[in-house]
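pasting for ref
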Amino acid sequence: MKKITKFFLMLVVVMMSSGVLLAQLQISDLEKQMMQNFQPKELGDGSGGALPLNVDAATPITVFPYEEDFESGTWSPYMEPFSGLQADATVASGEGNNSTYAALLEGNSWSGFYHTSSCTYTMLYNRPLHEAGINMTVVPSGEAGLLTMRFDYDQFYSFAYYYDAFQVLVNGTPIPDESGTTCFYPTSNNGNGYSTLTFDLGAYQNDASFDLQIDFVGKYYRNYYNGGDAMVIDNLTIFYLQIGDISVDVTADGAPLAGATVGIEDVNEYVTDATGHVDFIGLEIGDYEVYAYKDGMNYATQTATVVTGGVTQVDFNLSPPVMVINPLAIVETLNPNEWFTTYIGIQNIGDGDLFWTAEVV
């Protein structure tokens, strides 16, 4: 008989400093069995501590873009790895994104790990014992653009998704990525393959310097069970994002066209206002294919090039269909049971989509 692994809620309740009651979650029967023969890895230097951590050991980042692909197989002097007694931070072979090396942050053993399905509390109550991460000091250069950090990552878990989590912090305070997320749980036990996160550092680009951390907590080491409680990081870049805008006006026969849909794939889609206008604000420099359409009108596309600090104008003139019928009328007298066959030409010489029906009267 196949054994079903279940999770139960323990009658263990912790009163948080905020006054919130937080219940710790029980482990599965399978995990209990595996713990009987568990052998931890020899890792962790015990350097984890309360945030913000001391990053004086890392060489400040002063030149941009700063790029790190970890292919040297060792830590960059601009990064200070840290880890608690039940965690580790290494540059690991075989973990790269279409490359060899990546930064690996992982847990170690079950000892002292606190289970909760709150991502924030998973971070809070497993520091510093199960904590690992990367510290950096950033000295903004003041050049044009929006200071930004971007990296590729994948994240795994062993028995439960709440066995590891990570945050990005500036001066010890979590910041959101471009989707607004400030705390990240894994979504697949063996990972989903590399994806990219982007963090806006613009609020700090006028500071003399600031501390930047990627902070992780995890229970078990990489690949202990399933993918283990770990994350990998590759192709980390800190750069000034060069941005510009696209302004779009849509007309029909020279008059502003309201209610038209204007979009850029993988960016956004808008509906024109009464003046036939939409704006795309804060786009990275480069080429974009802009499309516009409205029911009864043609579908049109144009390529627009976004330049630093500029506004690229795109104009669409949408057209309705134009129906041509030849001949316009057929008059024929038939006797009973007599058949008549003829042809009518129907042509659309306009740009919009043409839909029609026919009826014999």
